Amino acid sequence: MARLPKLPNLLERKIYKTGQTRGADDDQIFQNRVGRNSTVLIPFPVWVQIPALHTIKYENGFIVLVNPRDFFKVAKGDISAHGLEIGRNALVFYERRDEWLEFHPDKYGFKPPTSRIAPLGGQYVARIANTTAEADERINIGYTSTGLKGAGIRLYEYADTGALGTTRIQLEAVFWHAVDAVEKMRAAGMTEDQIRLRRAAVLDHAAKLGLLDYDQLVGARILNADREVVCPLCLEPISVAGFLSRLPQASGRERHDLTVTEINLFHIQELGYGVFNHRPYNLGWGHHHCNVVCKDSGIHPTLEWMASVMRRNGMLN
Ligand SMILES: [Zn+2]
Predict the structure, then answer these.
(1) Same domain, yes or no: 182 and 256
(2) Which of 94, 126, 157 lies at the terminal end of a domain, its last residue?
(3) Which of 16, 116, 186, 276 is most deeply buried (CB count within 10 A of its CB)?
(4) How close is the Cα of 287 to the center of ligand 1, in Å?
(5) How many domains in the chain?
(6) What is the pTM of this model?
(7) Cα 262 to ligand 1 centre (Å)
(8) How far away, in angstroms, is 72 Cα from ligand 1 center?
């Protein structure tokens, strides 16, 4: 694509960051704010249950995490029947103190890893919560240093470079369908010409890549029947102001708008293990609050839950 007029920085960053993971804290095994094409962590039971996972070519590899009891008791120290080898593509993952004591890594000469890519340089990783007892301090071992924080990302967060590119293009194309996109981009400093050029080029590019199928976008609740961007849960048309809430108000527009709600990336189907949810036609823009509400259960179960709350409150029959 020819060089296009730039988007306001905040918006550019917001779209770029959709390709990164988030929501993991320092004590977790997961990496935070890294590309979705990073090393994937797969729990051993999931690996065993879903053979289709074995043939996927993850761009930065994968690590299967095996619970100590599964490894030492059930598998008797041998998981080669599952195509796995501790230290190469699998690690023993300690999360419970009783297992840490019973199967202590020192007994087996286990070391923490030094790499996310095979060979891993070690055999185990530990993230064990502290308890009220003073002797029971938190145990964080393996992938804790600044340059190597977190072992990898959640399986369902994974997207390859191709999907990262197409989802970003689709998300910008969708953005340009917001009711006030043109007006707000003008206020944020883009000229009329720049807006027209960028919008037309992005929509054209998206259409050519098959990313602008309106039936699918509407069906997925990303746009409404009028082709406006809506929050996938509450279906309210999205104001672009929510993308730029930290942007200084453009001159002559100092009026403080209290109704501005933060807009976030919204995964339409929050899927479990075995399916990747970061893909075209599964990503929209929605209210931060709505996103939090339906994060784990998904849109339809959340709507049913909301209806039951309304009914119990006598606000719905
Ligand atoms: Zn909403």
Answers:
(1) yes
(2) 157
(3) 116
(4) 4
(5) 2
(6) 0.87
(7) 10
(8) 48
